[in-house]
Amino acid sequence: MKRVIIVRHAKSVPYGYDDDFYRDLTERGEDDAAKISAKLMSLGVTPDLVIASPATRTMHTASVFCQNLEYDATKIRQVADLYEGMTTQDFIELLQALPESVQTVFVFGHNPTVYYLAYNLVKYFNSDMPTCSTVGLDFPIEKWSEVSARGAQVAFQLTPKSV
Fold first, then answer.
1. Residue 126: what pLDDT?
2. 130 contacts 102 by C-beta, under 8 angstroms
3. Beta strands in 9-90, from DSSP E residues, in sequence order
4. Phi and psi for 142 in degrees, rounded to 5?
5. What whole-number distance in Å separates Cα of residue 123 and Cα of residue 9?
6. Do residues 32 and 159 lie in contact, with contact meaning Cβ atoms separated by under 8 Å?
7. Average pLDDT for residues 28-42, to the nearest whole number?
8. 127 near 116, Cβ under 8 Å?
9. 3-state SS, residue 100
């Protein structure tokens, strides 16, 4: 089994849209990221690899998760297309290129992209993706090259309000 954890960045400052890329998290956003990542750690869900949009709020969210999940934040792989908007096919190709040693990959991005990815990777996904929403998708496959649209099942979804 291969697992993809899709995370929408935590709550960010509501101003600075003229320089959107550099918007950072609010205090609530930091707290939410800490709460969700601590819950994941308690469940034994940890990353073998972390991929994130290079935007400030996304990298900050990923860094908080890394700290709580004991993952070296300097090893976060930044993918610009996660900020700019990635198609499901592009995302599948990104996953298909992962090393087989990776069992669980965390991907930090933005709406609406993260919603569309979750929606298109499973047969039935009609949940919302509020800030810091974290969705675990399990693919019943042995190799990343076998990842396909509608091929995953939702293992869990955590939101700040549910934790």
1. 85
2. no
3. 49-52, 77-78
4. -105, -25
5. 24
6. no
7. 98
8. no
9. coil
* Letter string b/e over residues 82-92, b meaning 16 or more CB atoms within 10 A of that residue's CB: bbeebebeebb
Query: Which of 51, 114, 55 lies closest to 83, judged by CA?
Result: 55
Q: Which residues make Cβ contacts (< 8 Å) with residue 43, sequence separation at least 6?
A: 156
For 2-162, the fitting CATH number among 3.30.70.260, 3.40.190.10, 3.30.565.10, 3.40.50.1240 is 3.40.50.1240
Residue among 80, 89, 148 at smallest CA distance from 110: 80
pLDDT number for residue 122: 96
pLDDT digits (tens, 9 = 90+) for 44-61: 999 999 999 999 999 999
Both structure tokens of 156: 């869990």
Q: Which helix (H) or strand (E) holds 91?
A: helix 88-96
- Report CA dihedral (24, 30, 33, 39) to the nearest 10 degrees: 170
Instruction: Map out the domains of the chain as residue ranges.
Output: 2-162
H/E stretch holding 61: helix 56-68
